[in-house]
Specification:
Elements: H1 2-109, H2 113-126, H3 131-145, H4 151-171, H5 177-222, H6 227-239, H7 242-245, H8 249-270, H9 272-298, H10 319-330, H11 339-355, H12 358-374
């Protein structure tokens, strides 16, 4: 059995070797074929490349003269343009320098302070990047901006400094940016301080006037038949800056309370007639307050009017809605209103006017005139 097994094994190995040899030969031929294909593609590519380069050489040689001429013209034109641009830049610099010199001479030669200030501000508007004019402006206005004796003069000086500081900051050269920021911050800080002081003074003045009004009302309560006291009350009430009261809710409330007390005095003084007058003025106050509330809501972009009717959005620039407010304002007779009531109604009327559009303001004026003639 062993010789037979050996023969079979040898035969099998021979067959395997023959098959492997055949496969290897096929694979080798395949690789050779691929190499030939790649070589052919490479040769074709090199041929195309050579032909392309030769074509480019021909084109360049044929157009070399034309290309050179065009390039030379372009370079010459560019040189001329650069020369012209440089010359124009120099001319502009000279013109600006000469113009600045003339402005400086005008400012320096002006003896009238008001005209001089106007010239400086005009120069700043013309050359907003020129620090020289800003420094000249500061030399003129900064002494006024620290004037403790007259806050209104101080505020005016600071307002002009602020406007020009902003203009300079928006246009200044990069080397002046720190100076511009420092200048503007200083002016803004001073402006805020002045506004606070003016506000405090206005509030203090209103408080003093209300104190005097309250004192006169107490005297009227003690002696309601003294007509001279009522004249004094009217004089004080007329002097009060009623529009400013709206900036101080606590003072506005106090003023309304004093007005109610004055109505009560009239009621007690006049009996039945006083009751009628008091009710008339009270209703006028209610209507005036409602008008102001409508305008406050209207200025926020919409209002639901529960006073006149349906709970729908109202635009008081429209005729039919505006007419309702006009009728409220116009229905009261001036000779029956107390001074305080009259002033309050005037404030309400001003609120309506200020919150309307341009077209609404015209319409409001027309309606007020119509109501005045109708009455």
């Amino acid at each position: 059995m062993e010789p037979i097994f050996l023969v079979i094994t040898v035969t099998f190995l021979i067959i395997v070797a023959i098959v492997l040899g055949f496969l290897f030969k096929l694979q080798t031929e395949k690789f050779k074929l691929m190499e030939k294909l790649l070589e052919r593609q490479r040769e074709d590519f090199l041929k195309i490349k050579k032909e392309t380069l030769e074509s480019i050489d021909v084109i360049v040689k044929e157009n070399d003269s034309l290309l050179r001429n065009n390039l030379q013209k372009m370079l010459t034109g560019l040189d001329d343009g650069i020369v012209q641009a440089v010359q124009l830049s120099e001319n502009l610099k000279y013109y600006k320098k000469e113009s600045c010199r003339l402005w400086h001479e005008l400012i320096k030669g002006e003896t009238n302070e008001s005209k001089k200030l106007g010239l400086i501000e005009a120069a700043i508007k013309r050359y907003p990047d020129n620090r020289m004019y800003i420094e000249e402006l500061r030399r003129m206005l900064e002494p006024l901006s620290v004037n403790e004796d007259n806050l209104l003069v101080r505020r005016e000086a600071l307002m002009r400094l602020r406007d020009n500081a902003t203009l300079f900051l928006e246009n200044c050269k990069s080397k002046d940016i720190d100076y511009a920021f420092e200048f503007q911050n200083k002016v803004v800080s001073s402006m805020e301080s002045v506004v606070r002081k003016i506000d405090e003074l206005r509030k203090s003045k209103l408080e003093r006037e209300l104190n005097v009004l309250e004192e006169k009302l107490e005297r009227a309560k003690e002696n309601p038949n003294n007509e001279a006291i009522y004249l004094e009350i009217e004089e004080i009430d007329t002097a009060i800056e009623h529009n400013a009261l709206t900036n101080y809710p606590e003072l506005q409330t106090r003023y309304e309370i004093l007005s109610q007390e004055l109505l009560q005095i009239f009621k007690e003084k006049e009996g039945e007639d006083g009751n009628t007058l008091r009710e008339y003025n009270e209703q006028a106050l209610v209507d005036a307050r409602h008008i102001m509330q409508c305008m406050e809501r209207h200025s926020e972009g919409g209002v639901k009017d529960k006073f006149f009717g349906p709970n729908d959005p109202v635009n008081y620039n429209e005729r039919h809605h505006l007419l309702k407010l006009v009728k409220l304002i116009s229905k009261y007779e001036g000779n029956k209103l107390l001074p305080s009531t009259t002033n309050y109604m005037r404030i309400a009327e001003a609120e309506v006017f200020n919150n309307l559009s341009s077209e609404g303001k015209v319409l409001f004026t027309e309606l007020m005139i119509q109501e005045a003639y109708r009455s």
